[in-house]
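Protocol check, entry for the methods section draft. Step 1: assemble the input record (protein sequence plus ligand SMILES). Step 2: submit for complex structure prediction. Step 3: store the structure tokens unaltered in the notebook. Ligand used here: pyridoxal-5'-phosphate. Step 1 record:
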Amino acid sequence: MLRPIPHNERLADVRYDIRGPLHARALELELQGKPIIRLNIGNPGRFGFDAPDHIREAIAHHLRDSEAYCHQQGLTEAREAIAESMQARGCAGVDISHVFVGNGVSELIDLSLRGLLNPGDEVLVPAPDYPLWTAAVILNDGRPVHYPCPPERQGLPDPIEIERMITPRTRAIVIINPNNPNGAVYPKPLLQQIAALAEKHRLVVFSDEIYEGLLYDGAQFHPMAPLVKDTLCVTMSGLSKVHRACGYRVGWMVTSGRVQAAREYLRSLDLLAALRLCSNVQGQWAIPAALRGPDTHSALCQPGGRLYETRAAMLRSVARSAHLRVVAPMGALYGFVGVDTSAMPEFDDQQFALDLLDQRQILIVPGSSFNVPYRNHFRITLLPEAAVMERVIDSIDAFAGTLAKGAKPRVAQVA
Ligand SMILES: Cc1ncc(COP(=O)(O)O)c(C=O)c1O
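Step 3, stored output:
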């Protein structure tokens, strides 16, 4: 008898449904020749979006300069452009020593928590969150403590509620602004209150701003870093979303605020960065071009722009639906749609997603995958064409109707 190979037991509490069992089922169905409408992942390149030419050209131009490892924190040229952009938003003290470039923000989420946490340390994470944050806290021996950002509050947190959740073990608070999945964009007074809380309780602030330029209907983005003076702030951003270049795997993080009090932590970050030598060099050449080049994203979020029109189509079709509700996303790339389950006592978001996939060939992500305690939401990406979105929402609504007690479902098929 072969002894089974054990695995890391911490993984028992870790999930990433965006590429989980539902995604595997979708691949199976595709192999059976059934085309799937994939609304599960914010991957612009898969929906016909191109990375801007000027950032592609920057990589091509520097390909020959990309063959050696670079500094563990990243290319000087890339870090200069990032430091410059932080200075321009009011963080005068930031220089290249405060910048770390990574293989996507994903790598830096893990690295930044690994450098901070000791077993049992707590991290305040929004619910809903981008689930890597919760996963990375668990994998680094921490305990995620989720603070609610419910639809009744337009997906925003309440600082008083957050403060009640702080214990002597709380080390950090994560902000995702604009939020994935619920599209909330945090008003400045709210950010100021959270910054004050973090300063009072000496928490590190992790501000994930990867969707910072993707804003709708006049929403204004306010960076967290300039508001945090008396504790450490770690800002994260990258090329994946705003610059539509997920596959380049380029992200960065910048430390600001009370960096003097965080010397040991910053040394740990540098050590962890060095242990992985450096992040991929060719992608880093895109950073100066992206940060100093023309704005290629704002028009996408304005009337006539692809994201704007798909978001409008989603809002229109949800508004006329019988069973769906949504808080209009003010930023990012998603709709976090609620199902009115009052006539569906058995409703379960995971089962709903699986049945929808099997019966309508539509792939969504169940809301509970984003660490919320309720099970009546799902996330869809705003990346498809508007006409597809409209048909998909109609079809999901009709499908939800088949679950409602006594309801006569309206059947709308997706072409
Ligand atoms: C909020 C948030 N943070 C981080 C990431 C990871 O991005 P990257 O491609 O830079 O690893 C994502 C990806 O979807 C995200 O939504």
